[in-house]
Amino acid sequence: MSQYLTMKSKLDVKNSATLRFAPSTTGYAHPGTLLSALLCWLDARSRGDRFIIRLENLDPERCRPEFEQAMLDDLAWLGLDWDEVVYQRDQVKHHEAALDDLASRGLLYTCCCSRADIKTRCRPAADGGFAYDGACREQLLAPGAWRTTEDAVRVRLPDDEIEVVDESGEVYRQTPAHDMGDPVVRRRDGAIAYHLACVVDDARAGIKRLIRGRDLLPSAPVQILLHRMLGLPVPAYRHHFLLLEPQGNKLAKLHGSIDTRTLRQHYTPEQLCGQLAAWAGLIESEQPCRPTDLLSTFTWKNIRHDNLIVKVQSGRLKPASPSSYAT
Fold first, then answer.
1. In which band, very low, low, confident or very high, does the pLDDT at 247 lie, cut at 50, 70 and 90?
2. Are strands 184-186 and 209-213 parallel, antiparallel or unpaired?
3. Neighbours of 306 (CB within 10 A)
4. H helices of the chain, where?
5. What is d(CA 295, CA 273) in angstroms, rounded to the nearest whole number?
6. Residue 35 has pLDDT above 90, yes or no
7. What is the 3-state secondary structure (H, E, C) of 73-106?
8. Is the predicted pLDDT of residue 108 greater than 70, yes or no?
9. Per-domain residue ranges for the chain?
10. What CA–CA distances, in Å, run from 188 to 24, 112, 149, 195?
């Protein structure tokens, strides 16, 4: 039995359900990070489930230890607790076992296309990137050869249409092989890529439900296919509303958003929690509160569906007018 199949047979699924919050450690937390963490925490704690933090720190160029500690400090400052912290880099042997499994079935190939090539040649994809056109699809790798190639490694996806029925009731359909293209599973610098690591780590942790921002909805069909290809259980999904900049971008560190270093100079944790809770629909008006104050009445029925456009003024967050809401 292969190492990966052995690993699958020993998945550590706890008696109680487990929910995870999985921020990347490529920068400091921003308002969208705290919003998503708060909603994940409320869901888990209101159900009596385990809540784990998985720090996604596989990027050797952008992930830094100080961002890891700052993320944990900021979540604790907001008033959240957790049952376990998982460092994604510690799971690499399991990611590699999954790559060996895929390679043994002739599903991996090398890709020498640069980002500039792909941007020039390929059409835009739903996740904001570009749908890879399969130019290198015939460069299949022999089992184990992915470990020595200096090129990026992609996995050949089947031409299946995937339907995602979100817990919110939204239905999303996509044919990942066409609409997104075969994903990179091991980067040119040797780092394991997001989709594969996410799928393997969620299965190992026994994650049966995923709660995350709506910007990740286009990633769900790709990940569902990888779950199926690796013989892993497919979780249920709930994608929540986003905080957006006036220009329409997600209020995130990728776009230079205000981060918690500034927020903590202008808010108490109770003030920020109350503001996020009011914007989400958890309370009627902005008033200081702690996450524990929201548990007894938490329900997804009260959570807003439409995205909210937010402005930053003098270190504080201000919602745009209701007519500016984006769906």
1. confident
2. unpaired
3. 11
4. 3-9, 31-47, 65-78, 92-104, 115-121, 176-179, 194-204, 220-229, 260-266, 269-280
5. 13
6. yes
7. HHHHHHCCCCCEEEEHHHHHHHHHHHHHHHHHCC
8. yes
9. 243-324
10. 19, 9, 8, 15
Query: Sign of the C-alpha dihedral, residues 67, 73, 75, 81?
Result: positive
Both tokens of residue 59? 């990027």
Question: Dmax of the chain from CA atoms?
Answer: 60
3-state secondary structure of 301: helix
Q: Is the pLDDT of residue 166 over 50?
A: yes
- Which pair of tokens denotes residue 148? 């020595």
C-beta atoms surrounding 198 within 10 Å: 25
Q: Are 196 and 137 in contact (CB under 8 A)?
A: no
Mean pLDDT of 298-326: 82
Contact status, residue 189 vs residue 203, Cβ threshold 8 Å: no
Phi, psi of 98 (to 5 degrees): -65, -40
DSSP 206: T
pLDDT 10s digits, 40-83: 999 999 999 999 999 999 998 899 999 999 999 999 999 999 99
Residue 305 tokens read as 């569906």
